[in-house]
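Appendix C: a fully annotated inverse folding record. The material below is reproduced so that readers can follow the format used throughout the book. The structure is listed first as tokens, followed by the designed sequence.
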């Protein structure tokens, strides 16, 4: 093989190899989304969120997460948080709203969204964030695992495992409909079929134990549901009589077969559109 052949091979390998990952300018945006193939952090021009004071019915949970995030933003000890429970009750909305509130209070905290499917790349992401002087809330929405899913092992290193552990400037928040991040029947199956049932269950359930904060979200009452809608109306200047709002909102939730913060917002969106009010 000639020197020319070797040079040609070396040039081809350089073209095939991914370029070194360069951190973006973290002053460009308040939030970023992590993508793989190739690895990159893309800034979010406008975060889809609602103001913190419009998230009603979850006041105690709101205050707990806000205090925890503020501690982290100030460089004080803070816990990773798992927001679990009823769908549509504002879990992901709360994370985004709290980060915005902390920023408005003068703390430069960045929100970085990580998809569950990309958990295998989390070590590369952490190395990128570790090198920055900024502080980051790493956010994974709708986190859950199936029986053959090995991504939970990658997540353990984020929470408190590994030699390096979680960087001091990174906090991890996740939302899930499941308290233990996996279906109950999966846990029962592990208990019934494993050689050592308790060990098989402990390996998977221990993942949720690594979150210092468990914040539960539960279905709202009818009064809370109506209060959410009234809060939206007042905030956006949508005029409607109380009796009319009550009748329409109850009919709306009956057709949806559910009552939640998401359903309240969907009704309000329809109402605002009918009243000609832009959101």
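Designed amino acids, in order:
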């Amino acid at each position: 093989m000639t020197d020319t052949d070797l040079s040609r091979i070396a040039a081809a390998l350089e073209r095939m190899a991914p370029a070194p990952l360069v951190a973006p300018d973290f002053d460009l945006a308040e939030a970023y989304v992590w993508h793989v193939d190739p690895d990159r952090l893309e800034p979010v021009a406008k975060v889809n969120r609602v103001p913190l004071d419009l998230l009603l019915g979850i006041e105690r949970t709101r205050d707990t997460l806000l205090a925890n995030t503020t501690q982290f933003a100030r460089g004080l000890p803070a816990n990773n948080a798992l927001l679990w429970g009823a769908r549509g009750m504002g879990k992901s909305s709360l994370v985004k709203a709290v980060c915005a509130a902390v920023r408005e209070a003068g703390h430069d905290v960045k929100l970085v969204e990580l998809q569950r499917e990309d958990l295998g790349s989390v070590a590369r992401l952490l190395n990128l964030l570790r090198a920055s002087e900024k502080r980051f809330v790493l956010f994974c929405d709708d986190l859950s695992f199936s029986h053959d899913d090995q991504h939970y092992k990658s997540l353990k290193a984020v929470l408190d495992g590994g030699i390096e552990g979680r960087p001091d400037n990174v906090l991890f928040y996740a939302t899930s409909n499941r308290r233990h991040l996996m279906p109950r029947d999966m846990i029962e199956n592990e208990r019934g079929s494993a050689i050592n049932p308790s060990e098989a269950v402990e390996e998977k359930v221990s993942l949720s134990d690594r979150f210092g904060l468990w914040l539960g979200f539960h279905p709202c009452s009818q009064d809370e549901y109506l209060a959410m809608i009234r809060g939206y109306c007042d905030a956006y200047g949508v005029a409607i009589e109380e009796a009319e709002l009550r009748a329409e909102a109850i009919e709306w939730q009956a057709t949806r077969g559910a009552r939640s913060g998401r359903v309240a917002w969907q009704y309000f969106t329809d109402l605002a559109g009918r009243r000609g009010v832009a959101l």
